Amino acid sequence: MKDKFSTTDQVQLTRRSLLQSMSALAGTAALGSAAAMLPGAARAADMPVVKAYGVPTAALKDWSPMEASIGVRCELSGTSNDVGVFMRDIMASNLGESTDLFIFESGTEDILGPRGFYAEIETDNPELTLWDRTSDDWKRSDVVTDPKGTQWGVPVIGNADSFGYFPAKLGMAPDSEEELSWSLMFDDENTRGRVAFGQGWAYSFPSAALYLKSTGKAEIGNVADMTGDEAKVVADFLIERKKAGQFRTLYGAFEEQIQLLTNEEVDVINCWEPAVREANLVLGPDATRYAYTKEGYFKWGHGAYVAKQAMERDNVDAIYKVLNYFLGGEYRALQARDRGYAGPNMDLGVAYAEENGWSAEEVAALKATEAKVAKKFSKPFVSTTTPQNSADIEDQWQRFLNA
Amino acid sequence: MTMNTEIDGAAPAVRPRRRPLLRPPVAKLAFWGISAAWFVLVIVPLIILFVFSFFTTEYFQTVYTPSLDTWTGLFSSGRFEVTLRTLRVALTVTLIELAVGFPFALWLAKGCRSSLGRAIVLALLTIPFFLDLSSRTIVWRAILGQGGLINTILLSTGLTDQPVDWLLYSEFSVHFGMIPALFPPMVLPIYMAITLIDDNLLEASNDLGATPAQTLWRVIVPLSLPGVVAGFVFTLGPALAAWVEPGMLGGGFVNLLSSSIESAYTALRYPVVAALSAFVIGLLLVLLGLLMLILRRFGGAGLTLR
């Protein structure tokens, strides 16, 4: 789950982490001496530790398979999906002094890399054995390189976001895989007043720009990083649509996406794919669908970036083992099964599942995820959390919100 | 009582001079110490905040070149309207709370004779403080939505043939959500102030021929002003900073200060945050100044809890 807006999820995760920590502490206090005698526990305690900071989306639900596979323990401190908070923590709080890895959505590497907070990735590091077989589509993407092409990170997970919709309400077959236009979100009389649009500029503005650019209604260079003038054109369009009553609501959090779908308050919503799955658990299979689109997607990815100071410490090998693990089949398969997200080397994920006796359905689901992402990633534009013109874009987005 | 002594014709009682709690040099030192701490902890950050509003942000980095760009940007981006809208919504909610809360507090303090009943009402007022505001607010969506309880009733009874849209995702729903949440901060200080009013004063007013309305206006209101001022401040502050209700019930159509600041923060636009905050502080100072001027008409003595 990609938690761009959700605060509740983070809180829940934090609470869960706290409870887990407290349980662990209580368990340690009660069973301390006995646990120390267990060979497995002793091994875990002796393992090299990699400290990570970032969005919990990239975390495994259980890190023990990784510990068993590569003999490294990862301690992830979660943060919200707010890029401002994330960068402030790294720049102002100098987190690199105590953290080895940073995991976040694409964009921070363009700023924190050149400014000396991230270390350049050593692609020839002997622990990074899967680097060469990883496709350039992932490892050289905008998610982990800066505009000059410097390699600041290793790709972890990604997806291509579009919108959820009710096929029955739009007169479509439930199993239709027809490519739909984003006009359903912005410009369609049949959906007027029945659309939910995300109220975060980084997530929603580019989709509107993509629609205007693809349909020739506006000339926009880079959808992910519009100039102030381009953003103004998109804001004017959105203001006009807002005044025309196109949007039923501008939502703020992942939980709202699910709620808006499950109570059928809207017919179309630009959202995360898991929201559609969650809604279908309540409404029934294929009651809602996640659209394949004509114009393209909000393609996003999370990268893992090494703290500059970490390269001076004595756990560099362990850090690179973790980076390599993110490229491997076990991590890929577990992430796809547990969260439905794709990433580099999906074929290794399928191979891992087959070798480890996963059911035919689970293997088929992995293959379907691989095919789905390949289809979607052929469309244009990769998002960024840090556009060069962020101040102008944010100003224009405010104009839309205040109209 | 002093009043009785004077009525009896006895010589006016000479109030014994109280010994100062602190010796003059210590008192002077304490005054300057507290003033210095106040200056460092409150005034200096405000000055820094104001100075910061004259910088700009480029590509997530603050540019320390003084300019008016951030302030002019407040107007071109509509953030100026956000500030005024926030102030308008907060004041409306506060005045509604006052209009509803004052009679309620008066009834609770002087009208409700059962101590058990009073205890139950006070418990009902304070219990919401222990519940998460988001959880309390999100419930309204199920009630006010197009498929919610109210629209279901309206449609099934034939009162309307279409769901009423404005019940949710509107300024109405934001006000509606804020009022129950901010009721206790308005009622409790007023209740405390009215409780402190001696019943003998009310009886004296009655004995002297005052109508209930005159007793209310000339005795209760002036003496409860400290509670009213406290309730006003305790309600207006959270209302200005509200983000749960606008976020959950406004549907993105009621953009208030908190979400505007949050949006600026995602692009690390500290100067915008500083300018917005400075602007609001300025407006608040003007507002509180006006409030004090109005209240002075009722007598300054009523503004302290002595």
From TrEMBL, chain A:
Signal peptide positions (record): 1-44
Q: Which InterPro entries match?
A: TAT_signal
The answer to whether keyword Cytoplasm applies is: no
Q: Which UniProt keyword terms apply here? A: Signal
Q: Report the domain of life of the source organism.
A: Bacteria
Protein name as catalogued: PotD/PotF family extracellular solute-binding protein
Q: Which organism is it from?
A: Pseudodonghicola flavimaris
